[in-house]
Amino acid sequence: MRDVVVIGGGLSGLAACYELEKHPIRYTLIEVKKRLGGSIVSTAADGFIADASAFAVAEIEDLPLLAELSLAEDRFDFAPEQFGFCGGTQSLTGALARRLTGARLMRMAVSSIGRVDGRFTLCLENGLLLDAGAVIIAAPARYAERMLFNLAPEASDWLRGYDYDSICRVSLGYHKRDLPRRRIRPYSVIYPFVFATDSPGRVPDADHLLLQVGLRAFNDLSPEEIIGQVIAHYGCGENPLFARVDRWNESDPLSCYDDDHAATVSAMRARLPAGLSLIGSDYCLEPPQKGGVARLGERLRQGRAAARAALDFLNVD
Ligand SMILES: Cc1cc2nc3c(=O)[nH]c(=O)nc-3n(C[C@H](O)[C@H](O)[C@H](O)COP(=O)(O)OP(=O)(O)OC[C@H]3O[C@@H](n4cnc5c(N)ncnc54)[C@H](O)[C@@H]3O)c2cc1C
Fold first, then answer.
1. For 82, phi and psi rounded to 5 degrees?
2. pTM > 0.85: yes or no
3. Domain 2-162+257-313 falls in which CATH fold?
4. 34-85: per-residue pLDDT in tens?
């Protein structure tokens, strides 16, 4: 018999497990992919470390957590109130995952959740049935809506209406002599964000620079064509030392820009059965800031708060 099941091993689910780990309770983490970390992926090659998605972290108030995870020294500041991780953002999810000792079911997907005799029953796509005293769903709306179809039809209906932004991350590594002299500027409509760093750890040495560019859409172009467009747009040298394209067809929920998003999320959560939490990037209560970086901190806070709510529900100290 399981006490808590956490569905989804991205930053939110890992933060929930990390909090549960500190209490006398059995938990199981279920992740559909073969790796933990969700949309946070860092890739090391040719002396550069690139982030396929989250790169910039707002000064989160959860800094004691970074010290607990031995990451306080692994950060570099690159803009006012923003920092990145020398080893890539995956350092954060990796450090959380390494501290977890609870059961893990990898490459298994939860398809539906029900409630029998006061306990939750979870049906997995491979036919396995589990039960739990409390459940934390840390998966995007497009998956959560199916899990909640029978248990919470109203919430499921609302989650089905989600639309997403499509973002393409281009990472380019250069020797500085191959870059234009003018400043590389972010915030055009098509190139909404660009981060540049020569921080130790992220580049081979101080003569090199890593560019992390975010582009909207571009789904009809090949990676080579996308790289060519970015190089032409910024006037960089034609032969980067490192180049990589990562596509996120469903990155940010568009509704998080709506004025009533937080109120709607709260109203939807109020309709969920006691003992079940819904957390993650699709259910943010804090509006994204310019550049959209005030998010990893919220993921951590939501995850840990959901774990504490599950403990309260189960009367565990
Ligand atoms: C291109 C891009 C750039 C970004 N840049 C930044 C940035 O600079 N700063 C910042 O703060 N944030 C940024 N973000 C946002 C940040 O990456 C996310 O907010 C955060 O990683 C989301 O974590 P999560 O755990 O909520 O969701 P996810 O990472 O999506 O994790 C959800 C997990 O649930 C699993 N799952 C789904 N369905 C099931 C199922 N049925 N059963 C079991 N498991 C399931 C998935 O496989 C996944 O591992 C960016 C995001 C993108 C896409």
1. -135, 145
2. yes
3. FAD/NAD(P)-binding domain (3.50.50)
4. 999 999 999 999 999 999 999 888 877 778 899 999 999 999 987 778 889 9
Burial degree of 92 (CB within 10 A; 0-12, 13-18, 19+)? buried
Q: Which of 157, 121, 174, 175 is nearest to 1 (CA)?
A: 121
Q: How far away, in angstroms, is 316 Cα from ligand 1 center?
A: 29
Distance CA 184, CA 31 (A): 38
Q: Whose CA is nearest to atom 12 of ligand 1?
A: 54
In the block, residue with structure tokens 């921080």: 199
Q: How much distance in Å is there from the Cα of 40 to the middle of ligand 1?
A: 6
CB 11 within 8 A of CB 38: yes
Pocket mutation for ligand 1, best pick of 295, 300, 302 (most atoms within 8 Å of C-beta) = 295
Give residue limits of the domains in the chain.
Answer: 2-162+257-313, 167-248
The atom of ligand 1 lying closest to the CA of 246 is 1
Could you read off the pLDDT of 209-241 as tens digits, one per residue?
999 998 886 778 899 999 998 999 888 999 999
Mutate to test the pocket of ligand 1, among 5, 6, 30, 53 (most ligand atoms within 8 A of CB): 53
Q: Is the dihedral of CA 137, 301, 167, 179 positive or negative?
A: negative
Distances (CA, A) of 308 to 2, 41, 136: 16, 27, 11
3-state secondary structure of 93: helix
Domain 167-248 has CATH 3.30.70: yes
